[in-house]
Amino acid sequence: MTQHKTGLGSRGERDIQRRLHTEPMAARFYDSQVLDHLNGRMREFVARQEMLFMATADADGECDSTFRAGPPGFVQVLDERTLAFPEYRGNGVMASLGNITENPHVGLLMIDFLRDLVGLHVNGTAEVIEDAVLRRGHPLPEPDIPGREANLWVRVMVVEAYIHCAKHIPRLAKLPRARMWGTDDATRKKSDYFGAAGCGDPADRANQ
Question: Tell me: the pLDDT tens digits for 103-150?
């Protein structure tokens, strides 16, 4: 869903709605559920989440989706139109951050699998910002687990915020797990769980 000068919804959305005769249903959703900011209940929801999914694309439209996690509150609501989350140490590829430097449009999805069984979509524009710079204007939590220091944050300016309904969200149970923040131990990270390291060059595989 993308906001244009002509109203909510991309041209593609509108075309499919006309083909499937869902325009009245979509109009009701746009009118009643899509905000251009985070209201109070949305801000409270964001503040207690421990995970999010983020979609990005580079300048050519090549897409990537990724997962981010942290303790409750790792996604910081800076104000009703801005949120930010830290970039912890990962595999060093920096696919999402690289995409954002080329194309700032991002789509975030946070889902509560444990309590309310509901999700929140946040679409907006993002920028990569240094930890020290963000801290100058906003009080941010100090890291309390080794390896969880964030040198960079992703700051997102909200364009759209809307619900992902509970209809098909499964209820999950949270079990204790030893955290491995910052580990570079390939075994503990399960870095090659899918056995990709022994599969040769991707171009060779495509021609098989």
Answer: 999 999 999 999 999 999 999 999 999 999 999 989 888 776 666 778
* Cβ contact 153:129 at 8 Å: yes
Note whether 2 and 9 are within 8 A (CB).
yes
152: Cβ–Cβ under 8 A, 6 or more apart, which residues? 86, 87, 97, 128, 129, 130, 131
Strands (E), the chain: 3-4, 7-8, 51-57, 63-69, 76-79, 82-87, 105-112, 118-130, 152-164
Distance (Å) of CA 166 to CA 66, 89, 93, 110: 22, 32, 34, 12
Q: What angle do CA 91, 94, 99 make, to 5 degrees?
A: 150
**C-beta neighbour count of 38 within 10 angstroms:** 21
Q: How far apart are CA 208 and CA 197, in angstroms?
A: 17
pLDDT in tens, 53-65: 999 999 999 999 9
pTM over 0.90: no
Query: What is the CATH architecture assignment of 35-173?
Result: Roll (2.30)
How is the chain split into domains, by residue range? 1-34, 35-173
The burial class, CB within 10 Å (0-12 / 13-18 / 19+), for 161 is: buried
